[in-house]
Amino acid sequence: MHVRDLVEIGMGRTARRTYELNDVNIVPSRRTRSSKEVSTAWQLDAYRFDIPVLSHPTDALVSPEFAIELGRLGGLGVINGEGLWGRHADVATQLMRVTELAASSHDPSEVIRLLQELHAAPLQPELLAVAIEQVHAAGVTTAVRVSPQNAAALTPGLVKAGIDLLVVQGTIISAEHVGNGGPDALNLKTFIAELDVPVVAGGVSDHRTALHLMRTGAAGVIVGYGSSEGATTTGEVLGIGVPMATAIADAAAARREYLDETGGRYVHVIADGDIYGSGDLAKAIACGADAVMVGAPLAVAEEAAGCGWFWPSAAAHPSMPRGAVMPVAVGEDRRSLAQVLVGPSDDPYGTVNLVGGLRRAMAKSGYSDLKEFQRVGLSVRA
Angle at the Cα of 26 (from 253 to 171), degrees rounded to 5? Predict the structure, then answer.
């Protein structure tokens, strides 16, 4: 870290200067190309995707039907393995209870209490297996998210049900938590070595923790904690801020270091936070991400399970909920998932045709694929 990155915030106390995605801009080169000549494809382990978009693993988005449609469009839908699909047989009814209460109540705490109540129901692996089998049978890549605390107990059943990828994701995963040997700890390196499916792990916000997770054998590392519309994790509740541009760049540096360390093993960096439109998606890739995990922008889709409402998965935490149930689209404002991702768009702010915006940013900068685009020039706003 260069000394100029440190600023004094008081006598004897310094802090690092960091940057959000909104603080940086892409600098086009002298070359341009047609957006038709641009590829947004990427590959994670044995699985190839046409677009670098994963869904945030929240019940507000991902039903089996949503995961199937996102998979058909070239992305990856991630089911919350500890959400409602593994706890209730009538998930659609329960989601309707949540959204109707959110629409009628003036007390956000009332809606959170209902979410907590619904998530207090015991996990029923057979219910989750049905959802997984439905996605798997559709022929798209099947992914499920579990917490580090429950990964060891839940994963065997998930593998048996047919998952292709496992996402081990907590609000914060640290080197110490996953490997300290305590009763609730997950030895991620041993866990991954014994699995037949690739693992994506996160979230992290610094170079050292990203490098540690890469050394466990993870196929991908999630950077960020899903900070977006509705999420309160990084600010009001924990006081933790995730400067996504800096965090992505730091993780990309860890990826380069690990690539040299292993003689060629590439670990994918997935950005999870502050993606509100196509410009943010493009800037996340430009900072070094291979793909992005998107939440609220996908909730406007007609296929989204929350019917125009969004809340992050952490909103239902039993003792420290971190997120609100928020309306993102009502009535005619909802669009097909295909339109949200690949257009056409009639929205001037980049919230529709997310991938189309990325393609044009790449084309205007003269780059033909995602790996090349990670080398594009960047500027910082004054």
Answer: 50
CA 244/CA 295 separation, integer angstroms: 15
Task: Report the chain's mean pLDDT, rounded to a whole number.
Answer: 90
Residue 232, pLDDT above cutoff 50: no
Average pLDDT over residues 299-323: 89
Q: Check pLDDT > 60 for residue 1.
A: no
The continuous run of DSSP H or E covering 127 comes out as: helix 125-137
Residue 116 CB-density burial (10 A; 0-12 exposed, 13-18 middle, 19+ buried): middle
What pLDDT is recorded for position 171?
61
How many other C-beta atoms are found inside a 10 Å radius of the C-beta of residue 137? 12
SS3 sequence of 182-216: CCCCCCHHHHHHCCCCCEEEEEECCHHHHHHHHHC
* 336 contacts: CB under 8 Å, gap ≥ 6: 301, 302, 303
Q: How far apart are CA 151 and CA 154, in angstroms?
A: 5
Q: Between these two residues, 224 and 182, which has the higher pLDDT value?
A: 224
- Provide the CATH number for the domain formed by 20-380 in this structure: 3.20.20.70
**What are the tens digits of pLDDT across the range 40-61?**
999 999 999 999 999 999 999 9
Report in angstroms the alpha-carbon separations of 28 from 32, 150, 207, 360, 373: 8, 45, 27, 11, 10
Quote the CA–CA distance of 52 and 65 in Å, as a whole number: 20
Contact 320, 237 (CB under 8 A): yes
C-alpha dihedral sign at 283, 289, 295, 299: positive
**pLDDT value at 368 more than 70:** yes
Q: Are 297 and 101 in contact (CB under 8 A)?
A: no
User: Strands 78-80 and 143-146: what pairing?
Assistant: parallel
Greater pLDDT, 1 or 348 = 348
Give, as one character, the DSSP assignment of residue 51: S
User: Helix count (H) and strand count (E) of the chain?
Assistant: 13, 16
Residue of higher predicted confidence among 284 and 107 = 284
| pTM, two decimal places | 0.92
